[in-house]
Amino acid sequence: MKPRSQRLNPIIDVITITMVVFLFILSLQAAAIAAQPQVAAGIYHTVGLKSDGTVVAVGHNYDGQLNVDSWTEIVQVAAGIYHTVGLKSDGTVVAVGHNGYGELNVGSWTDIVQVAAGKYHNVGLKSDGTVTAVGSNVDGQCNFFDWNLGSGKPPSFPKTKAMPWIPLLLLDE
Fold first, then answer.
1. Fewest C-beta in 10 Å: which of 34, 45, 62, 170?
2. 54-92: per-residue pLDDT in tens?
């Protein structure tokens, strides 16, 4: 019989390989959370999301819609007429600018996966597919309370079967 240390080597190898694969997957997930550069335009201002999760803004600062210098860990930006919205990597939302209709009242939002800004309102899509909003509802633009858009997971479509004659077309005669 082999000594105990020699018998454990295959187990240690499997554990080591498993740990390496786990760390690799973890690094891929972290990279997926990283901000993708993007821009958004309000009526008199433009906002840019940098790849490091910070935000820049230019234009008129009538109501403080450019006050995004302190924002970090942002993964998406949106711009309304006089306000700016940022989705943080933890699913919370920040907003600056005009608040005449309550459009900045996003401080209690959690579990958000996407934001959009209208003229005087903001909309948030939650990870469970429900939608929330703050701000003006003068024209019914926030009347989606029965919406459920799905879980945010990519749809699974049935796989199509390859036509058996297609490979024949590729053969040299």
1. 170
2. 999 999 999 999 999 999 999 999 999 999 999 999 999
* Other beta carbons less than 10 A from residue 130's beta carbon: 16
Rounded CA gap, 83 and 70, in Å? 16
Q: Is the pTM of this model over 0.85?
A: no
Tokens of 98: 């005009």
What are the tens digits of pLDDT across the range 143-171? 887 787 876 555 555 665 555 544 444 45
d(CA 20, CA 53): 28
The span from the CA of 157 to the CA of 173, in Å, is 36
